[in-house]
């Protein structure tokens, strides 16, 4: 199913939280809504789900306007930030909930419900935990139960609100990859909200960068990284250094710099190394440029020649590689 | 129009409609009857009732007894709340589970029990060198009994929230126990303490069941406002009873308003500012040493 | 769990503990033991005899009736009010919350008065009530109404504080999975709030069975017809039959203890649920 959002606006009291949003989501795509907190990404997701109503604008599912349709007719698979599992029901009861509550005419037989729930449990690899209660599960297990529960109603689209934020770093990485693989398998149109650019870049087909209620840029991770449309997108995607000499301004990422300790070449600027931190594959060096009060950060591979002979307080010459001039 | 935010959870109109209807039927309609009745009272009638000496002495006694009762209840309450949260000792569970008994025990029973206990020939009354039952002191005792749970229960969560490390931090910074109490513990507890005090006072003012037995209703001596209302009603003097009720409502709403102000305005940092500007003697002495 | 004061000198500690038990003993224990001592002072035979009396039995029946009716009605109201206040945003919500709490700050005596003014002989409603032969004041309906008034906020309050903490996401999730309003309440909300509901019910029951001031004004003290147990206690006490009064008190005291026990049990259950929610 493809989703088409047309001239959508949302006001909360006086706040214009979503401003003229236009967005096309293609069938089978995995889309990330990325932005800092308060940018309106969660509101947009909740409006697509039907949990909130837009102030104006339309939403189409497969060319059908569903803006005024009841939330239950939309068949949304929605995963809440803290999973919202029913804590008094077992894992199996949670997953089968959407099937058990169907009106009698549409409800599958008890054995079909059980079979389908078991199948979903297998899919999320939790077959051995069917009779556990949510508070007996780890964060990652809870997340997978929430996903299975959402999938039980054969959703037309899967919406995930900060799906990894409640998990610790290690589990987050594993589940990210798992979710990405699962998406490839089932090819269900999916939208997820995140404030973590690494997460968005790693698994999304396309990324929608939002800021203060507007969409700043839409594109594949590569497009966005290579050709950021504006200052905000550039800054949001990673750490940046600013450096200016006279009329010249330089903005560059920590890894976009070449260091030299030997000579004063053209295009190189003088600085003092004030801190050196080996971080594994790279080494972080904090430089204090001679003509600037603001330190800049450089990250160089630790295979760089002569790196080991560099000491705190030494003179270093640096050259920004990519001149993203503003 | 009424609903300013869309919600997908059904039942808004049903629940709001039921709530408003039931509220109106049980609470608002009878209160409206009071106001309607009061609106028929003439101004000179009002003056006559309010200037009645019996009413004035009952008002004074009510304010006086409920103030002292709340003060005592909130002091004893603070002590028990502190002991219950900060100490562990045998029998603590028993105390803790019985704190709420005055809230669950019918007030009339509290009344007859305290009267029997403090009567001149009673178990405690005979031991004491002064009279308690049938005096204002007896009224205070009854009020303390019914209000002490409020003062304990408002303070307990606040005391629990003060980590012991805060006191240790004050100690490592060189504060004496007294300074720790005055500048660290007291400002944190005071707003809740005052809230407990006001709750206790509001409850004491309207208390009847536990007080009526121990007071013995001697006009000018142990007659408080609720007892006066009852005696007016016994004489079918609805006008007098209405005026006194409005007076009591005015006082208790004043107290409620006071509680809201406390919760909004009295914050620990404001108290600390206030206390450092008091320049208490021991504080300056510590400075000079 | 409880942080224990370190390096406490034993003298100071035992002094504080003695003081604690002294305060507790005088304020709490002494009145309670008096009830037991006085109530059983003429032996168990007399104690049972008090209840063989038809007047006492009818008072017990009326107390139970008023308590049960007011608890049921307050439960329905409490659930409706809590649902309305915690699930939606609307103009005037804080005013509504204040109004629901209002009965707590009104003296029981005033409650008695306002119901007398509304339904009594000087009310404009009175001729209308007489036409349908509806006696409210000095009759059972008035007693029930006054009891509902004094216990009005209990259930709503315990539900509101818990439901606010729990938030709405489980209900939203159920809605997205296709549940209707009835299913959301019974399958998702109710299992989460049942302990808070029972908690509200215990306090409501305690207050309802013990209400004295409001009921004493409205009842008219007709023995065998409009007397509740607390009023019966008052009558016996004033007739210098203190032992009988205390015998009845023992029964109510035991009921109060049971109620407190159930309430504390509920409180433990509730904290258990909320700590799960925080994980």
UniProtKB/TrEMBL annotation, chain A:
InterPro entries: AAA+_ATPase (IPR003593), ABC_SmlMolc_Importer (IPR050093), ABC_transporter-like_ATP-bd (IPR003439), ABC_transporter-like_CS (IPR017871), Mo/tungstate-bd_C_term_dom (IPR008995), P-loop_NTPase (IPR027417), Sulph_transpt1 (IPR005666), TOBE-like (IPR024765). Residues 3-237 form the ABC transporter domain. GO terms for cellular component: ATP-binding cassette (ABC) transporter complex. It comes from the Bacteria. Keywords: ATP-binding, Cell membrane, Membrane, Nucleotide-binding, Sulfate transport, Translocase, Transport. One of its GO terms (molecular function) is ATP binding. The keyword Cell membrane applies. SMART domains: AAA. This is ATPase component (CysA).
TrEMBL record, chain B:
One of its GO terms (molecular function) is ABC-type sulfate transporter activity. It comes from the Bacteria. It is found in: Cell membrane. The keyword Cell division does not apply. Pfam families: BPD_transp_1 (PF00528). One of its GO terms (cellular component) is plasma membrane. Gene3D superfamilies: MetI-like. Keywords: Membrane, Sulfate transport, Transmembrane, Transmembrane helix, Transport. Part of the ABC transporter complex (TC 3.A.1.6.1) involved in sulfate/thiosulfate import. Part of the ABC transporter complex CysAWTP (TC 3.A.1.6.1) involved in sulfate/thiosulfate import. Probably responsible for the translocation of the substrate across the membrane. NCBIfam families: 3a0106s02, permease_CysT. This is Sulfate transport system permease protein CysT. It comes from Commensalibacter communis. The lineage of its organism: Bacteria, Pseudomonadati, Pseudomonadota, Alphaproteobacteria, Acetobacterales.
UniProtKB/TrEMBL annotation, chain C:
Residues 60-263 form the ABC transmembrane type-1 domain. The keyword Transmembrane helix applies. It comes from the Bacteria. One of its GO terms (cellular component) is plasma membrane. This is Permease component (CysW). Keywords: Membrane, Sulfate transport, Transmembrane, Transmembrane helix, Transport. NCBIfam families: 3a0106s02, permease_CysW. Pfam families: BPD_transp_1 (PF00528). Part of the ABC transporter complex CysAWTP (TC 3.A.1.6.1) involved in sulfate/thiosulfate import. Probably responsible for the translocation of the substrate across the membrane. The chain crosses the membrane at residues 15-37, 57-83, 95-116, 136-156, 242-262. Gene3D superfamilies: MetI-like. It is a multi-pass membrane protein. It comes from Commensalibacter communis. InterPro entries: CysW_permease, MetI-like, MetI-like_sf, Sulph_transpt2. Its main location: membrane. One of its GO terms (molecular function) is ABC-type sulfate transporter activity. It is found in: Cell membrane. The complex is composed of two ATP-binding proteins (CysA), two transmembrane proteins (CysT and CysW) and a solute-binding protein (CysP). The keyword Transport applies.
């Amino acid at each position: 199913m493809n989703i088409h959002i047309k001239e959508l606006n949302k006001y909360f009291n006086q706040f214009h939280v979503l401003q003229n949003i236009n967005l096309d989501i293609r069938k089978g795509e995995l889309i990330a809504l990325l932005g800092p907190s308060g940018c309106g990404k969660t509101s947009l997701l909740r409006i697509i789900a039907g949990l909130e109503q837009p102030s104006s604008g339309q939403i189409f599912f497969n060319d059908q306007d569903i803006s005024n349709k009841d939330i239950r007719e939309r068949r949304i698979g929605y995963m809440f930030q803290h999973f919202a599992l029913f804590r008094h029901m077992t894992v199996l009861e949670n997953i089968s909930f959407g099937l058990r509550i169907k009106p009698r005419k549409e409800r599958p037989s008890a054995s079909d419900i059980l079979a389908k729930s078991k199948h979903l449990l297998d899919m999320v690899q939790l077959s051995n935990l069917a009779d556990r209660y949510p508070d007996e599960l780890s964060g990652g297990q809870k997340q997978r139960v929430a996903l299975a529960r959402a999938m039980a109603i054969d959703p037309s689209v899967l919406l995930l609100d900060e799906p990894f934020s409640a998990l610790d770093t290690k589990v987050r990485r594993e589940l990210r990859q798992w979710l990405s693989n699962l998406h490839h398998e089932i090819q269900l149109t999916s939208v997820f909200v995140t404030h973590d650019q690494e997460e968005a870049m790693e698994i999304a087909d396309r990324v929608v960068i939002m800021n203060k209620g507007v969409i700043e840029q839409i594109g594949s991770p590569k497009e966005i990284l290579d050709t950021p449309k504006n200052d905000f997108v550039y800054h949001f995607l990673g750490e940046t250094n600013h450096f200016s000499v006279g009329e010249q301004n330089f903005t560059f990422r920590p890894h976009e710099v070449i260091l030299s300790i030997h000579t004063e070449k053209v295009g190189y600027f003088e600085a003092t190394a004030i801190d050196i931190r080996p971080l594994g594959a790279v080494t972080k060096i904090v430089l204090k440029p001679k003509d600037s009060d603001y330190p800049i950060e450089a990250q160089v591979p630790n295979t760089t020649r002569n790196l080991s002979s560099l000491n705190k307080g030494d003179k270093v010459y640096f050259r920004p590689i990519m001149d993203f001039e503003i | 129009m009424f609903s300013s935010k869309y919600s997908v959870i059904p039942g808004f109109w049903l629940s709001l409609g039921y709530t408003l209807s039931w509220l109106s039927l049980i609470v608002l309609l009878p209160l409206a009857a009071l106001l309607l009745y009061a609106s028929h009272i003439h101004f000179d009638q009002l003056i006559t009732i309010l200037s009645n000496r019996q009413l004035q002495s009952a008002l004074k006694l009510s304010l006086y007894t409920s103030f002292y009762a709340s003060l005592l209840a909130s002091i004893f309450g603070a002590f028990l709340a502190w002991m219950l949260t900060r100490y562990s000792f045998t029998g603590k569970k028993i105390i803790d589970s019985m704190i709420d008994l005055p809230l669950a025990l019918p007030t009339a029973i509290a009344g007859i029990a305290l009267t029997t206990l403090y009567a001149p020939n009673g178990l405690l009354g005979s031991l004491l060198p002064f009279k308690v039952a049938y005096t204002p002191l007896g009224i205070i005792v009854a009020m303390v009994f019914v209000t002490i749970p409020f003062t304990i229960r408002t303070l307990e969560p606040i005391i629990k929230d003060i980590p012991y490390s805060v006191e240790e931090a004050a100690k490592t910074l060189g504060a004496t126990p007294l300074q720790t109490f005055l500048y660290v513990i007291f400002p944190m507890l005071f707003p809740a303490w005052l809230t407990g005090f006001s709750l206790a006072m509001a409850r004491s003012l309207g208390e009847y069941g536990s007080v009526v037995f121990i007071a013995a209703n001697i006009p000018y001596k142990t007659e408080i406002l609720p007892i006066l209302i009852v005696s007016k009603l016994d004489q079918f003097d609805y006008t007098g009873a209405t005026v006194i009720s409005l007076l009591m409502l005015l006082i208790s709403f004043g107290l409620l308003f006071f509680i809201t102000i406390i919760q909004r305005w009295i914050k620990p940092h404001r108290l600390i500012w206030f206390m450092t500007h008091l320049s208490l003697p021991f504080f300056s002495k510590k400075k000079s040493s | 769990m409880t942080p224990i004061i370190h390096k406490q000198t034993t003298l100071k500690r035992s002094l504080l503990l003695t003081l604690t038990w002294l305060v507790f003993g005088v304020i709490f224990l002494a009145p309670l033991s008096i009830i037991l001592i006085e109530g059983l002072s003429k032996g168990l035979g007399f104690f049972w005899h008090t209840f063989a009396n038809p007047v006492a039995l009818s008072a017990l029946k009326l107390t139970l009736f008023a308590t049960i009716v007011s608890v049921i009605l307050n439960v329905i109201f409490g659930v409706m009010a809590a649902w309305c206040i915690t699930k939606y945003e609307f103009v005037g919500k804080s005013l509504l919350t204040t109004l629901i709490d209002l009965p707590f700050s009104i003296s029981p005596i005033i409650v008695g008065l306002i119901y007398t003014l509304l339904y009594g002989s000087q009310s404009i409603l009175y001729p209308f009530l007489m036409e349908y032969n509806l006696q409210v004041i000095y009759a059972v309906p008035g007693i029930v109404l006054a009891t509902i008034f004094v216990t009005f906020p209990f259930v709503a309050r315990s539900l509101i504080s818990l439901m606010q903490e729990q938030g709405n996401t489980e209900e939203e999730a159920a809605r997205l999975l296709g549940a209707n309003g009835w299913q959301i309440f019974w399958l998702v909300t109710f299992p989460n709030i049942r302990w808070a509901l029972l908690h509200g019910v215990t306090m409501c029951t305690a207050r309802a069975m013990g209400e004295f001031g409001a009921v004493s004004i409205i009842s008219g003290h007709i023995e065998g017809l409009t007397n509740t147990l607390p009023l019966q206690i008052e009558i016996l006490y004033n007739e210098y039959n203190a032992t009988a009064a205390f015998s009845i008190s023992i029964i109510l005291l035991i009921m109060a203890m049971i109620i407190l026990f159930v309430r504390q049990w509920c409180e433990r259950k509730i904290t258990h649920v909320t700590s799960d929610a925080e994980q």
